[in-house]
Amino acid sequence: MAKQRKDTPETGKQSSDIQPAKGKLGIMIPGMGAVATTFVAGVEAVRKGLAKPIGSLTQMGTIRLGKRTDSRSPKIKEFVPLAGLNDLVFTGWDLFEDDMYTAASKAGVLERELLNNIKPFLSSIKPRKAVFDRNYVKKLDGTHVKKGKNKMELAEKVRDDIKEFKKSSGASRLITIWCGSTEIFLQPTAAHQSLKAFEKALQQNDEAIAPSMIYAYASLMEGVPFANGAPNLTVDLPVMRELSRQNEAPICGKDFKTGQTLMKTILAPGFKARLIGLHGWFSTNILGNRDGEVLDDPGSFKTKEESKLSVLEHILQPELYPDLYGKFSHKVRINYYPPRGDNKEGWDNIDIFGWLGYPMQIKVDFLCRDSILAAPIVLDLVLFLDLARRTPELRGIGIQEWLSFYFKSPMSAPGLYPEHDLFIQLMKLKNTLRHLRGEQLITHLGLEYYD
Ligand SMILES: NC(=O)c1ccc[n+]([C@@H]2O[C@H](COP(=O)([O-])OP(=O)(O)OC[C@H]3O[C@@H](n4cnc5c(N)ncnc54)[C@H](O)[C@@H]3O)[C@@H](O)[C@H]2O)c1
């Protein structure tokens, strides 16, 4: 029977200083496509009791507190003060004028019957004019676009939108989450190194500044937290880290972890745990939604590819296990195939080896629905970012590494490698919540049960 020896560290922190989630939470979404509409329609469907928020940790997840014998496992949403679904209000930007009902119908993810049940609500959400430039997303072209003499003026227009939404919606707090298309591959330049350099570059229309960065700058200037669902640099830049800390607007990204990469971060830690070697991992996808069309452009694909490729290196740590992972081959392909729509098919061929080097193979054929997997991530991220903003210990630290759980390319402090293992990420997330509430962290040591 368990004795009372403590083997879990106490954090010594108390939670009383987290501000309550009072009033409405405004969600602002650049990019009102498949993911955004599946998320917003889903929230409304759950609010109306038409469906359940499957896949959402904030809505369905529990958190164990204390010892296994304590039987304390509250729901996460009862353990930390999160905004309730009824308090969420929405706006967005897009270069197409479709309201959310039309956009959701075109995306073809959710069934017509469900959409019709919530049609008046969805139709009421109309996109604001986008900051858009075809040089950054070659496959798209639209007319619902802001004009300005330079990028600074465009940023000011986004800031005006943010202020207007706050006023008209009556929201007490705001969050921005990028659900826009994947932009071309860019690398940080001198323009991204400081606020001063970035603002000068905005005035000079510097090509190093992509539209997503303009939304990020505008949000952070308004003190609004920003999450990035695509692999673009966007907030993963020194200037944004500086702004985030300065204005106490938490940031996180990049690239929602869904589909094939989710599977990779579930399987690869398992191989490493059992010291199973890897010769190679070939991943290919077919998908036919607009995201697939955008990724058909080599510039946008390169951004995505970089994000997808980094995962295995970080999880498998070849430098620590040269005999197992020293020279594996890793390929990722995405093919745009219209008949599939949002229902992607991802094939993985995994060449592994075991005892004495004997080879084996695993094949994964995942018939997945990308936006169905992404929508609960969007919900959790906006609720957790809002929590971070209300928590004195988190709001001024910039990157919220504890939200790595949701991303293919998690952001981490400069010089620190990102954590990709889904299970470590989940432990980090839950331990952060325990820490905020002054609960003991859980190490899973468990010797006290056998004293
Ligand atoms: N669905 C997933 O599982 C998943 C996973 C990881 C990342 N993502 C990323 O999330 C993003 C959205 O995916 P989706 O399937 O909804 O794509 P989508 O093509 O259906 O929607 C993207 C929307 O963004 C709009 N857009 C593009 N540039 C814009 C700009 N500058 N301002 C405002 N709007 C802009 C497009 O017009 C489009 O409506 C993509 O970047 C995708 O790579 C999706």
Walk me through the structure.
The protein has 451 residues and is an alpha/beta fold. The protein folds into two domains: 298 residues, NAD(P)-binding Rossmann-like Domain (Rossmann fold, 3-Layer(aba) Sandwich), CATH 3.40.50; 110 residues, Dihydrodipicolinate Reductase, domain 2, CATH 3.30.360.10. It is built from 17 helices and ten strands. α7 crosses α8. The longest helix is centred in the C-terminal third of the chain and has 20 residues. The N terminus is likely disordered. It binds nicotinamide-adenine-dinucleotide. Nicotinamide-adenine-dinucleotide binds next to α1, β2, α12 and α15.
Overall radius of gyration: 22 Å
The description of the largest β-sheet is: 6 strands, parallel
Q: What fraction of residues sit in β-strands?
A: 15-25%
Mean pLDDT: 94
Bound molecules: nicotinamide-adenine-dinucleotide
Number of domains: 2
Count every beta strand, where a strand is a DSSP E run of 2 or more residues: 10
Shape designation: globular
**Helix content bin:** 25-40%
Detail the topology: elements first, then pairings.
Elements: E1 24-30, H1 34-47, H2 57-60, H3 76-79, E2 88-94, H4 100-107, H5 112-117, H6 119-123, E3 128-129, H7 151-169, E4 171-178, H8 195-203, H9 211-221, E5 226-228, H10 238-246, E6 251-252, H11 259-273, E7 277-287, H12 290-295, H13 298-316, H14 322-325, E8 329-336, E9 343-353, E10 359-369, H15 370-389, H16 392-395, H17 422-436
Parallel strand pairs: 1-2, 1-4, 2-3, 4-5, 5-6, 7-8
Antiparallel strand pairs: 7-9, 9-10
Helix pairs in contact: 1-4, 1-15, 7-8, 7-9, 11-13
The chain binds nicotinamide-adenine-dinucleotide (NAD).
